[in-house]
Specification:
The protein is of the alpha+beta class and about 1300 residues long. It has 43 helices and 34 strands.
């Protein structure tokens, strides 16, 4: 990717050169040079004379734009590629070619303008993308009007720091006691304030018998470092302030060569920092102080060795009060270049912590290497070096600043920023969120990453062979191109096996590269060859970074219509765990223990950091390719007062573990270990020992059918739902095996609770579920369907026409029904209560061969279908003993004699129910003739243009054609497309089931939103732009960003519904290569129409997008879905902060309804499916479990297919009171029907005949009639009469009607 961008830039440069004479272009670097000069002046001004001069000197900025020894700027990089492209110089005004047109001077476009025009048309997917970036960048910088007080504060701070007097050398513990003492006489002698100051000594703590001392001398140099100095800071989220880093250079005389061992340097550094805190705290408490600040300690990443001092302003309106800027100043003690410390020894293999042996007679123990300790010490030398390197990149690469800004914004939106320092207001608002482990203090790495792309890497030798060089990117790339090049690098780089060594000035490595690879998981050595910037970074966090880069590149490159690429890359908060990860587990590590690893804890700086990184490492080994990425999130450490010595523990011992699953490998049942061979016996195999140490007792030796003998781990699961829990089971086992964490009480997840949402209660499933589970569920339903097809096709001799095809069109046969289908044989009916006797029928369509014997009359065709059904039912019942087949007519409430209304209900001996319809293609032609006003047949019917019967007949034909098209044309295609998604995406089925359950529990499914519309909505989350379906590539199907679990898919759909502007419609290319191409469907312009249905969901076969949404949701229902989705989304996000029962997401609020119709639970045949079911309802008066309940409604033991009285009652209410009230109901066992009156009918209006609703008179006196003593008869909605009718209609089903006063 980077090479392609470089070639594209070279071609663009050649085109610009060709138009140089006609395109007077301005030097690209002129503005940047002026800006860099201004930055240098500001740095020089802010730091004053005692601070390092950035314009002259041996290590200054001047001459640093190239790496030549003479300081000149190199025109080519070290690989021979062009360093960048420059626009030609602008010609003089006397030779400039100008043209006169309508009195105005018109100049040809300049080279830079030509480049921008071409980029906008080719590089960006939309013309607005570049404009959005240009508008974003200026808003990320601090306000200039607020920086003046900060500059004055820095001047004052500089004066204070260099004037602090020195102290005499004291032993470390005695010096600490002096600082913490409140004795005023001692404080005056030591120039210490009244407040006690604690010295943040890191482990191992100094003892009383140490021979070395600590002391303080005023700093020799104070330098503004970091992003603020180079003007590359980025506004962070959640109230985080601007960080201004000051490198305080400690005098070299304070240190000795051996201070690198046993944390002696860090102890001296801690005392130096504490003395600064003491002086600044004392100064802030004085009256007439030049500045007042809050002083606090901060330990990035909970590493006490790198503790810094934070200064926050006191809002007092003084000239140095920079509180409006929302910034803080961080004091970082650093090592001077001339220090006597033996820094050259701090290689990754060097042991710097040398604990004395417990006994003098014991043999000396070789201390283990301390690579992280060494890196922490070397970090104290790098702030100035990183400042100079970044400044050189800004000069060399014109777009570096903007590219780095885009990269940092992208990273912040995804949580790759562990330096959480909240403002005072932010702290009180509890906005701190968990951040990704390993990213604390990694700010310099992002600039170094872009530097590697531009300048290249140092080659390393691997067994005598040099590593391959990576192509460099051109320095003339735009900021967006450089940003994409960085994402491309991150998406491809394998950090575990590909170390990165940034190019240095002398081309040499300070330490052997092999040592970095041996003692560090990830390696990225900076351009000074001083420190590994990724030391201590878990590989799991880098895997997540690679995954996020892939997802962003897919969004930026695919041009998915449903996603705004700019918002998705830079604006939207991508840190929400429920949508980012497929499995999220909450783990309490308060009691986590790692035995015999104390030396490693010292190397990490804290035991908590060691435990968290060990968790990351072991989980990555255990999950292998089951997970694409693992994210471990911890609570941000809080700053602590200067009276607190030790770093505060995290606010909570809870960490969150997120898994992004690989659907192809995540749910396998066996993990294979090393194989045993003759040469590799069980006793001496190192791999076997490592495997058994990882898995513990779970590992076992197994012989497989092909003769292999391997160590293996087998996961025993009983169902497909339980199989989806295998990754979580692995995490729980590993945490218990290696860290002693209780997998039951200390590890919590929500998978089990979401499973219970789409599962029948245990008490009722014992009555209904067959003991042989292979005969139930989706597999059982598919087997029953296959058996039915064979039985029907065996009736060819008994049927007048041959059966060509039997097509399923049921959600139960495409794995998307809320509950797994269950058979209900007659034996089960005898013992089941009335509220658990519903038998859903699975729809199928029969297609016979074409024949001229079919009549051409629509009414006759319907009669012929009934004859077919009678013939099939008779033959089936004769062929299959125990099978029952019934012909049903008139299921549609508004059915006519030309509408398809006949069907065949089939109940198999095993209890499976089917509903069969006949598809005859001749019907469509005849119906289209009736609906076509230009057809001769219509003209013959329309003998009288004013005849109302003609329009009535045409409406019947239109209704019949609409039902025919939906039922026989689109339904089978939709079924095949959705069924294929189940096989492509393992999480799709569960996602649809959860979303349907959520909509049903909120009284919207069926009555307002069709099941097909829900399936298409969920499909949009998985297929994106549909390219994966078109190309049929399994890798594309498993691409980054596709949900790997039903929980993640459900969360994404809810988030989509909460943000979806349904007025613009949605395109879902669900058919892939079938029918019209996905590209054609994607380019359809859709607009939401008027009532009743306002959703527009377009597919390749339904360009208008109204096939499944023409009847709903209405504007009222659509707005209610959005409100409910927003509330549910907030609850889902709260799972990151606290654990709660997810069932609350499916409990519907009833405060907004005008009236509630409460039903009798025992009369609701699907009550056992209720989301908040009460098992005592079906327990009834049973004395024994195997006896039927004794209730008045429990007298009929006949199995009635699709018989749901509550749903039929709800549909009757919708039909009868259409236009008067809107009804809402949960079709999955709901016991309450909510109603909302039409608000326009509540207003009084004049009486008229056939007004369309029940009304009562209301006498009102208008102002005009009042003067004439006249009244006017008005009518209002008769609510009481309507409710009485509703109660009468539901006699025996309605328990009560509750009227709410919502005025």
């Amino acid at each position: 990717m980077a090479h392609e961008l470089a070639n594209r830039e070279r071609k663009r440069s050649e085109k610009q050169s060709a138009v140089a004479e006609l395109s007077p272009a301005k030097d690209n670097n002129s503005k940047k040079t002026k800006r860099n000069a201004k930055v240098t002046d500001e740095l020089e001004e802010a730091t004053d004379e005692p601070i390092q001069d950035f314009t002259t000197g041996d290590d200054g900025i001047e001459g640093a734009t190239g790496y030549d020894s003479d300081g000149s700027t190199s025109s080519q990089d070290q690989d021979g590629d062009q360093a960048g492209t420059e626009a030609p110089e602008a010609p003089s005004s006397s030779t400039a070619d100008t043209r006169v047109h309508t009195g105005k001077l018109l100049l040809p476009p300049k080279g830079e303008e030509l480049r921008q025009i071409k980029e906008a048309s080719e590089l960006f997917k939309s013309s607005s993308f570049k404009l959005q970036i240009d508008a974003l960048l200026p808003n990320l910088a601090p306000k200039v009007s607020h920086t003046a007080p900060l500059e004055r504060f820095l001047f004052a701070l500089h004066t204070v720091l260099i004037s602090i007097p020195s102290t005499k050398p004291l032993p470390p513990l005695e010096a600490a006691r002096n600082l913490s003492s409140k004795d005023k006489s001692r404080s005056k002698k030591s120039f210490i304030g009244d407040s006690p100051i604690a010295v943040p000594y890191p482990h191992p703590n100094p003892t009383e018998d140490v021979k070395w001392t600590v002391e303080f001398e005023s700093p020799k140099e104070i330098t503004v470092v970091g992003s603020w100095a180079n003007k590359i800071g980025v506004k962070a989220r959640e109230g985080m302030g601007w960080g201004v880093d000051l490198a305080v250079e400690m005098p070299a005389a304070l240190f000795q060569e051996k201070d690198v061992h046993n944390a002696r340097f860090f102890h001296k550094r801690a005392f130096y920092l504490a003395y600064l805190a003491s002086h600044l705290s004392s100064l802030s408490t004085m009256k007439d102080s030049p500045f007042k600040v809050h002083v606090a300690y901060e330990s990035p990443g909970a590493d006490a060795r790198l503790t810094t001092l934070l200064l926050r302003p006191v809002s007092d309106g003084s000239p140095t009060d920079f509180s409006k800027l929302n910034a803080f100043v961080r004091l970082i003690p650093v090592i001077p270049p001339s220090s006597p410390l033996a820094l050259h020894r701090l290689s990754p293999s060097h042991a710097s912590i040398r604990a004395s042996s417990a006994s003098s007679t014991s043999e000396p123990i070789e201390p283990p290497p301390t690579p992280l300790y060494n890196s922490a010490l070397l970090k104290c030398t790098t702030p100035r070096l990183h400042l100079l390197h970044t400044h050189a990149l800004i000069q060399e690469v014109p777009s570096f600043t903007n590219a780095l800004t885009l990269l940092r914004v992208w990273a912040n939106q995804r949580g790759y920023n562990g330096d959480y320092i909240a403002s005072e207001n932010a702290k009180t608002s509890s906005v701190a969120r968990a951040f990704l482990a390993g990213w604390a203090g990694r700010g310099p790495w992002w600039a170094a990453l872009l530097g590697v792309l531009v300048n290249g890497e140092e080659p390393i030798s691997d067994s005598g062979r040099k590593s391959a060089k990576r192509k460099l990117v051109a320095r003339g790339l735009s900021s967006y191109q450089l940003f994409r090049a960085a994402l491309d690098f991150l998406s491809r780089h394998e950090w575990s096996s590909q170390p990165v060594f940034a190019r240095t000035k002398d081309g040499k490595h300070r330490h052997p590269p092999a040592e970095y690879q041996q003692y560090h998981d990830a390696v990225f050595v900076d351009a000074s060859s001083s420190v590994n910037l990724l030391a201590g970074m878990p590989l799991s966090s880098l895997d997540l970074l690679r995954h996020d880069a892939k997802v962003t590149l897919d969004v930026l490159g695919d041009g998915i219509s449903a996603i705004d690429p700019f918002a998705e890359a830079f604006l939207n908060d991508q840190r929400d765990m429920v949508t980012r990860f497929d499995v999220v587990l909450s783990v309490d590590i308060a009691n986590a223990k790692i035995h015999n690893q104390s030396h490693k804890a010292l190397d990490w700086g804290s035991e908590n950091s060691f435990v968290i990184n060990s968790v990351c490492s072991v989980l990555r080994r255990a999950l292998t390719n089951r997970a694409k990425a693992i994210g471990v999130f911890i609570q941000p450490p809080e700053t602590r007062p200067v009276s607190q010595a030790n770093a505060l523990p995290p606010p909570s011992s809870i960490i969150h573990i997120g898994l992004i699953l690989d659907p192809a490998n995540a749910h396998r049942l066996v993990d294979h270990g090393p194989a045993l061979t003759d040469a590799n016996t069980e006793s001496d195999s190192h791999e076997v020992k490592v495997f058994r140490e990882l898995w513990g007792e779970k590992s076992e030796l197994r012989r497989f059918k092909d003769g292999r003998i391997q160590e293996s781990v087998v996961w025993d699961v009983q169902s497909s739902d339980a199989r989806a829990h295998i990754p979580a089971m692995i995490v729980k086992h590993i945490l218990a095996q290696h860290f002693g964490i209780d997998s039951v009480n200390a590890v919590k997840g929500c998978q089990d609770e979401f499973d219970r949402i789409v599962r029948l209660p245990e008490s009722i499933s014992k009555l209904l579920v067959h003991p042989d589970r292979s005969q139930t569920g989706f597999k059982g339903a598919m087997a029953a369907f296959d058996t039915l097809v064979r039985d029907i096709k065996s009736l060819d001799e008994a049927l007048p026409l041959a059966l060509l095809n039997v097509s399923p069109v049921s959600s139960s046969l495409r794995y998307t029904s809320v509950f797994a289908p269950l058979p209900l044989p007659h034996s089960t009916v005898l013992t089941s209560p009335s509220c658990a006797r519903y038998v859903p029928a699975m729809d199928v369509e029969l297609q016979f061969e074409r024949s001229a014997r079919w009549p051409d009359d629509l009414v006759a065709i319907q009669k012929t279908k009934l004859a077919f059904f009678e013939c099939i039912s008779t033959a089936l019942m004769e062929r299959v003993p125990g099978l029952k087949a019934t012909v049903v007519v008139g299921d549609e409430s508004s059915a006519s004699d030309i509408m398809d209304q006949g069907k065949l209900e089939i109940l198999t001996p095993q209890g499976w129910a089917f509903t069969a319809r006949i598809w005859h293609d001749r019907e469509a032609t005849l119906l289209e003739r009736l609906t076509d006003s230009k057809n001769g047949l219509i003209n013959r019917i329309q003998q009288n243009f004013e005849d109302k019967d003609t329009e009535r007949e045409r409406k019947k034909a239109r209704d019949a054609l609409e039902i025919y098209t939906r039922r026989f044309i689109h339904a089978p295609k939709h079924h095949r497309a959705i069924a294929s998604l189940f096989h492509l995406f393992p999480a799709y089925s569960g996602t649809v089931r959860l979303v349907k359950r959520w909509l049903a529990s909120h009284w919207l499914l069926g009555g307002h939103v069709s099941e097909e519309a829900v399936e298409l909505l969920c499909a949009s989350v998985f297929i994106g732009d549909g390219k994966s379906l078109v190309e049929g590539n399994s890798e594309l199907v498993g691409r980054a960003g596709v949900p790997g679990s039903k929980e993640a898919g459900f969360a994404r759909v809810v988030k989509f519904l909460a943000c979806w502007k349904w007025e613009g419609g949605l395109v879902v290319p669900v058919y892939g290569s079938g029918g019209t191409s996905a590209e054609g469907g994607k380019n359809v312009e859709v607009k939401a129409g008027s009532a009743p249905g306002v959703w527009v969901i377009s597919t390749e076969e339904d360009r208008e997008g109204r096939m499944w949404t023409s009847k709903g949701p209405t504007p009222l229902a659509a707005r209610r879905i959005k409100v409910l989705a927003k509330a549910s989304w907030e609850c889902l996000k709260a799972l990151e902060r606290e654990y709660y029962d997810v069932k609350t997401l499916f409990i519907h609020p009833t405060e907004d309804y005008d009236f509630l119709i409460r039903l009798v639970p025992t009369a609701v045949h699907r009550y056992y499916q209720n989301v908040n079911v009460d098992p005592s309802v079906w327990a009834g008066n049973r004395k024994y479990a195997n006896l039927p309940a004794e209730t008045e409604l429990d007298t009929n033991k006949t199995v009635r297919v699709n018989f749901d009285p509550a749903k039929m009652y709800f549909e009757d209410l919708q039909r009868v009171y259409n236009g008067t009230a809107v009804f809402f109901y949960d079709p999955l066992g709901g016991t309450v029907i909510g109603g909302v009156w039409d608000p326009s009918l509540k207003e009084a209006r004049l009486f008229r005949v056939l007004c369309g609703y029940s009304s009562i008179p209301e006498r009102q006196i208008t102002p005009e009639a009042k003067s004439k003593n006249k009244t006017k008869d008005m009518i209002v909605l008769g609510e009481a009469a309507i409710l009485a009718e509703i109660r009468r209609m539901g006699e025996g089903l309605v328990a009560s009607i509750v009227v709410r006063n919502n005025n």
